[in-house]
Task: inverse folding
């Protein structure tokens, strides 16, 4: 039996975790290194590590000030965290069907789902394959809607050369241990719209301006807003940092294995009509997971 997933260790995970316990500072040095790495890698304004991909979605829902009566359009085929982030704010998820080729949100279904209560769109890039983001972003811009990308599966995947999770106003990637790059439990919130950065830091730190205090911008930190404990443990960030430094090698290896499977299933497709996954030309996938029908 083939394992569902298998973590590829770099050899530095334990070394970095040990450094966390030897460090006399409490400001999350490995977390900061991960965030800097991700900002440079994905060319996004701000990357904020969270304790899970789910937490990143919930943090985003807080940032958008969702409330009862608001509606958010999302695909019917997704994990529960996508809908829960909206429901926890008292808002309503509005489910639309998916495309049969990519299993992603059908961008042609947006118009029918849109109402005067619609606040945003939550596209899910399933299995490391991008939604048709130009259409989604244009639809949202014309109607003054936010776009929150659920790119949980998508470390290293792109849409027309741009990293998934960095196209909408906000986006997230998961670092759960079942993902290509992981640390057991973890995630990141990508902030592409700069107007959300300051408040995102506050909400992530239990509603305080502790991030400013750590940077020396205030002499003490205090309670500024609502929030919760969304920050990733630096022990997990240390593990993640080792994984991030090897991420390209991991992705390249997965793509090589994916190619071998693809060639084998092409024979089945020709002989028995098995429908293979569709990878649109605009998408650079990361060989996370593919469905065979």
Result:
């Amino acid at each position: 039996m083939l394992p569902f997933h298998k973590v590829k260790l770099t050899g530095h995970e334990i070394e970095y975790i040990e450094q966390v316990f030897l460090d006399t500072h409490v400001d999350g040095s490995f977390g900061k290194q991960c965030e800097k790495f991700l900002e440079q890698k994905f060319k996004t304004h701000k990357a904020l590590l969270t304790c899970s991909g789910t937490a990143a979605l919930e943090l985003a829902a807080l940032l958008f000030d969702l409330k009862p009566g608001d509606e958010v359009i999302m695909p019917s085929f997704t994990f529960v965290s996508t809908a829960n982030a909206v429901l926890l704010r008292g808002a309503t998820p509005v489910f639309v069907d998916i495309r049969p080729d990519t299993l992603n949100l059908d961008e042609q279904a947006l118009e029918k789902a849109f109402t005067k209560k619609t606040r945003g769109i939550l596209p899910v890039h399933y299995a490391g394959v991008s939604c048709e983001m130009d259409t989604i972003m244009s639809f949202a811009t014309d109607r003054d809607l936010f776009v929150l990308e659920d790119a949980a599966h998508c470390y290293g995947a792109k849409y027309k050369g741009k990293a998934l999770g960095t196209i909408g106003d906000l986006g997230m990637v998961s670092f759960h241990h079942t993902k290509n790059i992981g640390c057991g439990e973890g995630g990141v919130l990508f902030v592409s719209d700069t107007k959300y950065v300051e408040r995102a830091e506050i909400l992530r730190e239990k509603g305080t301006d502790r991030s400013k205090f750590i940077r020396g911008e205030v002499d003490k930190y205090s309670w500024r807003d609502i929030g919760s404990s969304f920050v990733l443990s630096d022990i997990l960030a240390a593990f993640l940092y080792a994984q991030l430094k090897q991420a390209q090698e991991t992705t390249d290896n997965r793509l090589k294995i994916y190619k071998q499977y693809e060639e084998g299933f092409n024979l089945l497709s020709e002989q028995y009509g098995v429908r293979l996954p569709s990878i649109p030309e605009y998408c650079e996938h990361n060989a996370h997971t593919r469905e065979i029908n």
In short: The chain is about 35% helix and 15% strand. Residues 57 and 85 are 6 Å apart (CA to CA).
